[in-house]
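Predict fold of Protein arginine methyltransferase NDUFAF7; 422 aa.
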Amino acid sequence: MYEGKPLQIVELGPGKGTLMIDLLRILSRIGYRQQDFSLHLIEISPMMQNEQAHRLCMTHRSSDENMPHYYEGETVSGIKVYWYNDISKVPQTFSWYIAHEFFDALPIHKFEKTSDGWRELLIDIDENDKLYYRISGKETQAVQLWIRPPLDSGNKKELEVSVKSLSIARQLAQRVDENGGIALIVDYGHEGEKGDTFRAFHKHKIVNPLENPGECDLTADVDFSQLRIAASKTSKEDNFAIVVGPVTQRDFLIRAEAESRLQVLLDNSKDEDKENLKAAFEMLTSTQKMGERFKFMAFYPSAMANILENITNVTICPGLGGTVPVSGDLSRCQQRSQHSPGFVSIPKDSFKINFFRARNACPTPCTGRQMIERAVRPRSAASMHLFLESVPVRECWAMDGGANNGIARRLRRRAGGMCLDV
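Predicted 3D structure, encoded as tokens:
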């Protein structure tokens, strides 16, 4: 596996830069230094770009007109930050791409199926200078270009297509496939079952999208099924992505140990703050709130296809009471109680991960694709041990509540000092 240094972190639509600030803090904690990575931000709003620069950078300035980026800066620790108005201008190399609430803000075409076939829903202006919707009398160019299988599959009567979203998803897939890395998309969305999601917000309230143009935030739910189509292999394209997901925000956070993180925060917080933490966790994970509305999708390089499909020897075995089993030796763990969290073993000649602790894992045997799609991740609040079996071992992670520091130290030595304690 690629070590990931030097690394490009690319965010599409960084907003106020809050996510990047959090990410910089985490990368610093796990050993990344200023020479190990750079930030590349896609932003077309001068106002938002200015706010991002002031929050992220110690110094910043306009770039030379001959450069692909139009603005640049450095963080207080010397990390380079670059701004672009289009993803096509970002250097093509190993990158992490992040699109958090980005695709829902891109423009859409709206279509309706009539007795005469598909027609585009247009916006016109009446004699009182008021905007209103009207159906096109004939097929528009957008209907002829985009309303075709598989986008119009099923019994849909309404359809929204974001051509810009399809283009960017395709670019992300090509970049990940050609240069390595991963793309993570997080947004409100569905998987093709909805047709009319276009709406407007003003002061946190839903309003008529055609009233007060320019004063409201316009949005449409992301159709993840269309992003999957755009990123996947076609007859005319050689570069494509392995598309995983979408999964709900609740599933993503729970599998990423959000419950354990909450417990750590609760254990170290004041009594008056505990209820606020619990309420925030509920808001993020509840199926009645953001837990179901937000979804996560990832793009992997197509070179991982054989790896993901060929891992079939996955063994679930009981926990080892805080010890890490010897690679390939499952006899001890098979003799332990079935009540403790289990270990998942993956053949080291098939994949890099050898052991990690997991309470809820997929049935055996299962493919590597199933493991990633189900995001088999540790769920033990007490401890988790994950290390990579490679030659040589480059990285390892050790998570615990403080009782297994000896194990963490041994893993760190095995990884040549590069180890993350969470």
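Residues 109-161 form one domain.
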